[in-house]
Amino acid sequence: MTLRQTYQKGKMLLEKAGIETPAFDAVCLFEKVFGMDRQKLMIHGMEPAEEAHAAAYWELCEMRAQGRPLQYILGEWPFMDFTLCVGEGVLVPREETELLVYTAAERLRVGSGAKGPWKGIDLCGGSGAVAIGLASLLPGLEISCAELYADAFRFLEANVRRLASKAVHPARLDVLSPESAAPFSGLDLVVSNPPYVEAGVIAGLQKEVQQEPRTALDGGEDGLVFYRAIAQLWVPRLKPGGVAAVEIGEEQAQAVTELFRDAGVREIEVRKDFNGLDRVVVGCFYPGP
C-alpha cells in the first residue's frame, strides 16, 4: 500500500465517524507517524508505506474516530507563535484565547505608558498559554501562573521549561481561596481564562470537549463562580490603574461587566472574537467611590 492510500484509508475512517475536519485531522496524524506534512505527502505519495508505520497511523485514526481530542493524540498544539505540550488533565489551548492575550497586553501598554517593569498573575493557568503568551509580548512582565490541579500543573511546568519562559512563575494555588490571594498586592495585571461553562450544559458538549478536565470547564450553576472570585478576591490586588482581563462565554459579557464594575473596574470594554462573539472583558481598576 502506498503512502497516499494509507492516508486516504485513515481519512475515510474519520469521515465515517463524523469527525468535522477529517482531512485536517488525518494529515496531522499522518505527519506525527510518518514525519510528512501535506506537501511532502503529495510529492512522495506513490512510495510504499512501511507496514508498522501504517498500522500505527491507523491506530491513531481509530482513537480520533472514537472521540479522543486530536490535540491529546498529538501531544502538542500551537498557540500564537509557539507550541505547547498538552494531554489528559489540561485544557486544550484555543485560538480565541489569543484575543485575551493580545487585549491584555495592549491595555497594559496603553495604561502604563511605559515598557514596564510589570507584575501580574494569570489565574486558572492550565497549560500556561496565556502567561507564556503575555511574557512573549511584554519583555518587562513578571507573571505568576496559578493552577490548582496536579495534572494541569505538570503541563504548565513542562511548557515553561520547554519555552524557557523565565518571566513565568508556576504557582500551585486555589483561585477561589482568600488565603491564596492574600500574599499578592500591587499587581499591574490580573488575567484569566477561567472555567465558565454552566454545570448543566457540560453533558451536552462535544464528546471531544467532554474528555477535557471538567475542572477546566465547570463554572458552577450559572457559569460565573470564578468571575465572582476574580472580582472579589483578585481585582483588589491590583494597583490603581492596573488591568483586569478575562475570557468569557458568548452570553456572559453583561454579567461579568457588572461584577467588574462593582469591584471598582472602570474603562470596561468587551472585545469580540473572529466569529463576532463576545469573548473578552477588560478594564482598569480604580479603588474608591
Summarize the structure.
It contains 12 helices and 9 strands. It is α/β, with parallel strands linked by helices. The protein starts with a helix and ends with a strand.
Radius of gyration: 21 Å
What is the overall silhouette?
Answer: elongated
What string gives the helices and strands in order?
HHHHHEEHEHEHEHEHHEHEE
Which strand order do you get reading across the main beta sheet?
5-4-3-6-7-9-8
Q: Give the averaged pLDDT, no decimals.
A: 94
Biggest beta sheet summary: 7 strands, mixed
Low-pLDDT parts are none
**Total DSSP helices:** 12
EC number: 2.1.1.297
Protein name: peptide chain release factor N(5)-glutamine methyltransferase
Domain Methyltransferase small: 119-201
InterPro entries: DNA_methylase_N6_adenine_CS, HemK-like, N5-glutamine_MTase, PrmC_N, RF_methyltr_PrmC, SAM-dependent_MTases_sf, Small_mtfrase_dom
Question: How would you describe this structure in keywords?
Answer:
289 residues; alpha/beta; Rossmann fold; 2 domains; seven-stranded mixed beta sheet; two-stranded antiparallel sheet; 12 helices; 9 strands; 42% helix; elongated; methyltransferase
Topology, element by element:
Layout: H1 3-16, H2 22-34, H3 38-44, H4 51-65, H5 70-74, E1 76-79, E2 82-85, H6 97-112, E3 118-123, H7 129-137, E4 141-146, H8 150-162, E5 168-171, H9 178-181, E6 187-192, H10 207-210, H11 225-234, E7 238-247, H12 253-262, E8 265-272, E9 278-285
Parallel strand pairs: 3-4, 3-6, 4-5, 6-7
Antiparallel strand pairs: 1-2, 7-9, 8-9
